[in-house]
Protein backbone atom coordinates (compact mmCIF):
# COMPACT_ATOMS: atom_id res chain seq x y z
CA UNK A 1 0.00 0.00 0.00
CA UNK A 2 1.24 3.49 -0.85
CA UNK A 3 1.46 5.96 2.01
CA UNK A 4 1.43 9.51 0.69
CA UNK A 5 2.77 12.19 3.01
CA UNK A 6 -0.15 14.57 2.54
CA UNK A 7 1.27 18.05 1.85
CA UNK A 8 4.49 16.51 3.22
CA UNK A 9 4.76 15.52 6.88
CA UNK A 10 2.15 18.19 7.49
CA UNK A 11 0.93 16.96 10.87
CA UNK A 12 4.20 18.12 12.43
CA UNK A 13 5.64 20.68 9.99
CA UNK A 14 4.27 23.55 7.87
CA UNK A 15 2.27 21.98 5.03
CA UNK A 16 3.46 22.11 1.43
CA UNK A 17 6.89 23.47 2.30
CA UNK A 18 10.35 22.09 1.52
CA UNK A 19 10.67 21.39 5.24
CA UNK A 20 7.58 19.18 5.35
CA UNK A 21 8.71 17.34 2.19
CA UNK A 22 12.25 16.83 3.51
CA UNK A 23 10.94 15.61 6.86
CA UNK A 24 8.72 13.06 5.10
CA UNK A 25 11.74 11.82 3.15
CA UNK A 26 13.83 11.69 6.37
CA UNK A 27 11.10 9.47 7.87
CA UNK A 28 11.64 7.07 4.98
CA UNK A 29 8.29 7.81 3.34
CA UNK A 30 8.40 7.04 -0.39
CA UNK A 31 5.33 8.92 -1.68
CA UNK A 32 4.39 12.58 -1.31
CA UNK A 33 1.32 14.63 -2.23
CA UNK A 34 1.29 18.38 -2.92
CA UNK A 35 -1.00 21.08 -4.38
CA UNK A 36 -0.18 23.42 -7.26
CA UNK A 37 -1.38 26.91 -8.19
CA UNK A 38 0.08 29.62 -10.41
CA UNK A 39 1.52 32.98 -9.36
CA UNK A 40 0.83 36.31 -11.08
CA UNK A 41 4.08 35.96 -13.03
CA UNK A 42 3.15 32.42 -14.14
CA UNK A 43 5.32 30.38 -11.80
CA UNK A 44 3.96 27.04 -10.58
CA UNK A 45 3.80 27.30 -6.82
CA UNK A 46 3.07 24.75 -4.12
CA UNK A 47 0.34 25.75 -1.71
CA UNK A 48 -3.07 24.32 -0.85
CA UNK A 49 -5.51 27.24 -0.73
CA UNK A 50 -6.25 29.84 -3.38
CA UNK A 51 -5.74 32.41 -0.62
CA UNK A 52 -2.49 32.59 1.35
CA UNK A 53 -4.01 33.63 4.66
CA UNK A 54 -4.63 30.26 6.37
CA UNK A 55 -1.05 29.06 6.03
CA UNK A 56 1.05 32.23 5.61
CA UNK A 57 1.19 35.63 7.29
CA UNK A 58 -0.36 37.62 4.51
CA UNK A 59 -3.61 38.25 2.73
CA UNK A 60 -4.91 37.84 -0.79
CA UNK A 61 -4.92 35.37 -3.61
CA UNK A 62 -1.89 33.42 -4.78
CA UNK A 63 -2.66 34.45 -8.38
CA UNK A 64 -2.33 38.13 -7.50
CA UNK A 65 1.27 37.91 -6.23
CA UNK A 66 4.52 37.39 -8.12
CA UNK A 67 6.65 34.49 -6.92
CA UNK A 68 9.18 36.90 -5.38
CA UNK A 69 6.36 38.38 -3.33
CA UNK A 70 4.93 34.97 -2.38
CA UNK A 71 8.24 33.62 -1.14
CA UNK A 72 8.63 36.53 1.26
CA UNK A 73 5.63 35.45 3.38
CA UNK A 74 6.36 33.69 6.64
CA UNK A 75 4.39 30.61 7.52
CA UNK A 76 1.68 30.95 10.13
CA UNK A 77 1.81 27.56 11.84
CA UNK A 78 4.74 25.78 13.52
CA UNK A 79 6.53 29.09 14.04
CA UNK A 80 9.20 27.31 16.09
CA UNK A 81 10.61 25.79 12.89
CA UNK A 82 10.17 28.87 10.75
CA UNK A 83 13.18 29.11 8.46
CA UNK A 84 14.07 29.39 4.76
CA UNK A 85 12.66 25.92 4.15
CA UNK A 86 9.23 27.12 5.31
CA UNK A 87 8.40 29.48 2.44
CA UNK A 88 6.02 28.78 -0.45
CA UNK A 89 8.09 26.60 -2.79
CA UNK A 90 8.12 26.55 -6.56
CA UNK A 91 7.08 23.22 -8.03
CA UNK A 92 10.50 22.94 -9.70
CA UNK A 93 12.32 23.03 -6.33
CA UNK A 94 10.20 20.13 -5.14
CA UNK A 95 10.65 18.13 -8.34
CA UNK A 96 14.40 18.42 -7.97
CA UNK A 97 14.14 16.99 -4.43
CA UNK A 98 11.80 14.25 -5.66
CA UNK A 99 14.24 13.30 -8.41
CA UNK A 100 17.23 13.18 -6.05
CA UNK A 101 15.41 10.90 -3.62
CA UNK A 102 13.45 8.72 -6.06
CA UNK A 103 10.11 9.62 -4.52
CA UNK A 104 6.65 8.94 -6.00
CA UNK A 105 4.79 12.24 -6.29
CA UNK A 106 1.10 13.07 -6.51
CA UNK A 107 0.69 16.55 -7.98
CA UNK A 108 -2.79 17.89 -7.35
CA UNK A 109 -3.70 20.62 -9.86
CA UNK A 110 -5.86 23.05 -7.89
CA UNK A 111 -7.83 24.33 -10.84
CA UNK A 112 -11.28 23.65 -9.48
CA UNK A 113 -12.01 27.06 -7.91
CA UNK A 114 -9.76 29.39 -9.92
CA UNK A 115 -8.90 28.69 -13.53
CA UNK A 116 -5.17 28.48 -14.20
CA UNK A 117 -3.74 27.54 -17.54
CA UNK A 118 -1.09 25.28 -16.00
CA UNK A 119 -1.23 21.86 -17.68
CA UNK A 120 1.52 22.41 -20.29
CA UNK A 121 3.83 24.02 -17.70
CA UNK A 122 3.40 21.15 -15.23
CA UNK A 123 4.11 18.57 -17.94
CA UNK A 124 7.17 20.50 -19.18
CA UNK A 125 8.69 20.34 -15.70
CA UNK A 126 7.89 16.64 -15.28
CA UNK A 127 9.47 15.94 -18.66
CA UNK A 128 12.50 18.13 -17.83
CA UNK A 129 13.21 16.01 -14.72
CA UNK A 130 12.29 12.71 -16.44
CA UNK A 131 9.71 12.02 -13.79
CA UNK A 132 6.96 10.62 -16.02
CA UNK A 133 7.02 7.24 -14.24
CA UNK A 134 7.17 8.78 -10.78
CA UNK A 135 4.12 11.00 -10.85
CA UNK A 136 0.40 10.80 -10.53
CA UNK A 137 -1.44 13.99 -11.52
CA UNK A 138 -4.84 14.50 -9.94
CA UNK A 139 -7.56 17.12 -9.78
CA UNK A 140 -11.11 17.67 -8.62
CA UNK A 141 -11.46 19.47 -11.96
CA UNK A 142 -12.02 16.58 -14.33
CA UNK A 143 -11.87 18.86 -17.39
CA UNK A 144 -8.33 19.69 -16.35
CA UNK A 145 -7.50 15.96 -16.28
CA UNK A 146 -8.75 15.65 -19.85
CA UNK A 147 -6.52 18.53 -20.92
CA UNK A 148 -3.51 16.82 -19.30
CA UNK A 149 -4.39 13.50 -20.92
CA UNK A 150 -4.60 15.06 -24.36
CA UNK A 151 -1.18 16.64 -23.88
CA UNK A 152 0.53 13.55 -22.45
CA UNK A 153 -1.22 10.21 -22.29
CA UNK A 154 1.82 8.36 -20.90
CA UNK A 155 1.45 9.82 -17.43
CA UNK A 156 -0.91 8.43 -14.79
CA UNK A 157 -3.93 10.51 -13.77
CA UNK A 158 -6.21 10.35 -10.75
CA UNK A 159 -9.74 11.74 -10.52
CA UNK A 160 -10.49 13.30 -7.16
CA UNK A 161 -13.97 12.99 -5.65
CA UNK A 162 -15.18 14.72 -2.54
CA UNK A 163 -18.90 13.93 -2.41
CA UNK A 164 -21.46 12.04 -4.47
CA UNK A 165 -22.22 15.34 -6.22
CA UNK A 166 -18.87 14.96 -7.99
CA UNK A 167 -20.16 11.96 -9.98
CA UNK A 168 -23.75 13.02 -10.41
CA UNK A 169 -25.46 11.29 -13.33
CA UNK A 170 -23.43 8.09 -12.93
CA UNK A 171 -24.53 5.09 -10.92
CA UNK A 172 -21.31 5.14 -8.97
CA UNK A 173 -17.86 6.69 -8.85
CA UNK A 174 -16.28 3.75 -10.66
CA UNK A 175 -18.51 4.16 -13.71
CA UNK A 176 -17.70 7.87 -13.76
CA UNK A 177 -13.94 7.25 -13.52
CA UNK A 178 -14.03 4.55 -16.21
CA UNK A 179 -15.69 7.08 -18.46
CA UNK A 180 -12.89 9.56 -17.75
CA UNK A 181 -10.21 6.94 -18.43
CA UNK A 182 -8.08 7.55 -15.36
CA UNK A 183 -5.59 5.35 -13.49
CA UNK A 184 -7.01 5.97 -10.03
CA UNK A 185 -9.94 7.27 -8.06
CA UNK A 186 -8.76 9.48 -5.23
CA UNK A 187 -11.59 9.45 -2.75
CA UNK A 188 -12.64 11.27 0.35
CA UNK A 189 -12.70 8.49 2.97
CA UNK A 190 -16.45 8.99 3.42
CA UNK A 191 -17.00 7.60 -0.08
CA UNK A 192 -15.01 4.44 0.62
CA UNK A 193 -16.30 0.98 1.48
CA UNK A 194 -15.23 -2.54 0.57
CA UNK A 195 -17.86 -2.75 -2.20
CA UNK A 196 -16.56 0.31 -4.05
CA UNK A 197 -12.91 -0.76 -3.65
CA UNK A 198 -13.68 -4.22 -5.08
CA UNK A 199 -15.68 -2.67 -7.90
CA UNK A 200 -12.80 -0.31 -8.72
CA UNK A 201 -10.28 -3.14 -8.70
CA UNK A 202 -12.45 -5.19 -11.06
CA UNK A 203 -12.19 -2.22 -13.44
CA UNK A 204 -8.42 -1.95 -12.96
CA UNK A 205 -8.72 1.32 -11.08
CA UNK A 206 -6.51 2.06 -8.10
CA UNK A 207 -8.13 3.54 -5.00
CA UNK A 208 -6.29 6.21 -3.03
CA UNK A 209 -8.00 7.75 0.00
CA UNK A 210 -7.72 11.10 1.79
CA UNK A 211 -7.18 12.30 4.49
CA UNK A 212 -6.47 9.35 6.72
CA UNK A 213 -5.12 10.60 10.05
CA UNK A 214 -7.11 8.65 12.63
CA UNK A 215 -5.80 5.18 13.61
CA UNK A 216 -9.33 3.70 13.47
CA UNK A 217 -9.77 5.02 9.93
CA UNK A 218 -6.29 3.79 9.02
CA UNK A 219 -7.24 0.24 10.09
CA UNK A 220 -10.55 0.42 8.26
CA UNK A 221 -8.80 1.48 5.01
CA UNK A 222 -6.39 -1.43 5.38
CA UNK A 223 -9.37 -3.80 5.77
CA UNK A 224 -10.99 -2.33 2.66
CA UNK A 225 -7.74 -3.09 0.79
CA UNK A 226 -7.35 0.38 -0.67
CA UNK A 227 -4.18 0.95 -2.72
CA UNK A 228 -2.99 3.96 -0.82
CA UNK A 229 -3.80 6.66 1.67
CA UNK A 230 -2.92 10.32 2.04
CA UNK A 231 -1.97 11.08 5.62
CA UNK A 232 -0.62 14.07 7.53
CA UNK A 233 0.98 11.42 9.78
CA UNK A 234 2.49 8.98 7.28
CA UNK A 235 4.78 7.47 9.92
CA UNK A 236 1.75 6.53 12.05
CA UNK A 237 0.13 4.84 9.05
CA UNK A 238 3.35 2.93 8.42
CA UNK A 239 3.44 1.83 12.06
CA UNK A 240 -0.15 0.57 11.87
CA UNK A 241 0.61 -1.26 8.63
CA UNK A 242 3.62 -2.75 10.38
CA UNK A 243 6.02 -2.13 7.50
O1 LIG B 1 -5.31 14.63 -3.02
C1 LIG B 1 -5.90 14.24 -1.84
C2 LIG B 1 -6.31 15.42 -1.01
O2 LIG B 1 -5.19 16.24 -0.85
C3 LIG B 1 -7.45 16.21 -1.60
O3 LIG B 1 -7.95 17.16 -0.71
O4 LIG B 1 -8.23 19.42 0.19
O5 LIG B 1 -6.37 18.01 0.99
O6 LIG B 1 -6.30 18.98 -1.30
P1 LIG B 1 -7.19 18.45 -0.19
CA1 LIG C 1 -4.32 18.01 -2.08
UniProtKB/TrEMBL annotation:
Q: Which PROSITE patterns match?
A: GP_PDE
The record ties this protein, via CDD domains, to: GDPD_TtGDE_like
Domain GP-PDE, by residue range, is: 1-241
A GO BP annotation? lipid metabolic process
SUPFAM superfamilies in alphabetical order: PLC-like phosphodiesterases (SSF51695)
What's the domain of life for this entry? Bacteria
One GO MF term: phosphoric diester hydrolase activity
The protein's name in its UniProt record: Glycerophosphoryl diester phosphodiesterase
Q: Which organism is it from?
A: Romboutsia lituseburensis DSM 797
Source taxonomy: Bacteria, Bacillati, Bacillota, Clostridia, Peptostreptococcales
Amino acid sequence: MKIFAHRGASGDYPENTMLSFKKAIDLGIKSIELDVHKSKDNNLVVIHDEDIERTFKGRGLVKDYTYDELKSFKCRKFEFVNNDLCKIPELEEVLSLIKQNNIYLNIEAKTDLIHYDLERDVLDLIEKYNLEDNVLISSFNHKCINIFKNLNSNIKYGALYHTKDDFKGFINVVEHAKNLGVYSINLNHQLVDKYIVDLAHKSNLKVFVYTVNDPILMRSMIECKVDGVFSDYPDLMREILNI
